[in-house]
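Data availability (excerpt). The following record was deposited with the supplementary files.
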Amino acid sequence: MKRVVVVLFALLIFPCQLLAQPTEVTLYCDDAYSPYAYMEKKEAAGIYTDIVRAVAEKMPDYAVTIEPVPWRRGLNYMQTGEGFALFPPYYRPEERPFLDYAIKMLDEELVVVVRGDSPIEVDAAWPEDFKDMRVGSNAGFIFMDPWKDKGIFVYDESADNRTAILKLAHGRIDAYVNDRLAILSTVAEMRASGTNVPEVRVVALLSSEAGYLAFTNEGGDRYPYKDDFIAKFRTAFEELEQSGEVQKIVNSYVE
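Predicted structure:
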């Protein structure tokens, strides 16, 4: 009898806390930015996506849905306030003042890789140490525009990561420029599928830029929980970082 009285007393004193439901929140992500965020079988996938899901599991006050969308559409949602948050934009406050870059997630690194037997050493100078070599990147890769016609090296374009890595493996190019995790995750996928890919080494870091979970500044009163969500997400994310869980997620894509 005493237990029943205690339960009834708790229901009378704390009805809101006992009956409250998690706040439903939709986060948008890029649907074509492998391996970081993309759509696979109509579901959100990728490194950032897995990190966000792991963080969301530590936030019982929120029921988080991740929806992959074309990048321009996601930005438009943020600019109009139709969307609450988007990942992973780079920090561009002047270009995109409608975004609140609240959560820095990962540093994305643009690198040069070579075969394991290449004479190029780690911390090679760009582009001097690649003089007269065959250097590849993917078609339309803007970073290469200032260099590809300078005559320092022979430039080679590929349709995608896999094609370029095969060229590197077979000696058709001597070096390949792209995002570090994009290269390493493609190598891991190729090896998992039975393709023989020799060792590749990162020999130069060309640039580094962070991807963010960013929130709209244009929502008005539509998202009264914004500050609370950001604070709780940041705390949970930092816990996962310190525990090594974030790095485990990254490693799962490249090992």
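Summary of structural features: The first helix runs from residue 2 to 13.
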